[in-house]
Design goal:
The chain is of the alpha+beta class. The protein is built from one helix and four strands; from the N terminus they run H-E-E-E-E. The chain has a domain at 26-59.
Length: 59
């Protein structure tokens, strides 16, 4: 059975655990109607379209 020769510091263990908490960039897609980038599965803030229809009236 493998046994570590020296104690691992708290900073080393915590930095190893912290690497799993990195944030990815938010997903983006283009609006089918006006072409502006938006979050997927959201109403376009520029034109108000979603799923091929006008969901809200944007002035």
């Amino acid at each position: 059975m493998a046994v570590p020769k020296k104690k691992t510091s708290k900073a080393k263990g915590r930095s190893r655990k912290a690497s799993a908490w990195t944030l990815d960039r938010a997903a983006r897609s283009a609006c089918d109607h006006c072409g502006v980038t938006k979050r997927p599965h959201r109403i376009c803030g520029n034109c108000g379209w979603y799923a091929g229809r006008q969901a809200i009236d944007v002035d």
